[in-house]
Predict the structure.
Amino acid sequence: MTDDPATEPLAARRAAARRRRRIIGAGHAGQEQTARRGLGDKDPDVQAAALGALARSGTLTVPDIARALESDAVPLRRRAPDAALSVRGPGSRSTLHALVIGALADPDPLVVVAAAWFLGERRVRAGVDVLAQVALAHPDTRCRESAVAALGAIGDPDGLPAVLAALDDKPTVRRRATVALAAFEDPRAEAALRRSAEDRDWQVRQAADELRGDEDDD
């Protein structure tokens, strides 16, 4: 204990930063045990760095992701879906996908955004129904936008109604929805593109025009 309590948080932050750098270095060096010890660190940012280090060294497991998504540490939960892309082996296409779909209900919006991104990257069709719910009803615009983008990346026909509904959302969501329409071969998507070409937001109109190409010149 020092005589000046105000200096203690700064000292703690510096110590955590040193541990975080050590963990990151372990990931680059393939030192799994050193990186894994970081998961038990008292600092959430060090824990998140450990998750990334294990992902970088190819030693991250499905149970690691499960524990991260169940953690009270928000930085760790935010990092988990991104790190999960590196996971291979048993459970990486079943249990892992179910875990990340479950993360769409996380109270932290950025965890939801990261989970939607993972599902889009992995083209997880099992996540379409929950992504559609997020796209339609989540109170955070970023989450709705990310869910719409994931639905477009997956391209499952069951996701189209939510993408169409997103064309009545805020401009950022409408832009994502317009781009997502390109994934669907459906007359409703074609009609929606024509509608987006007349949207009041110029970026929505631009996206629609680029997707339609020279269609109107024929």
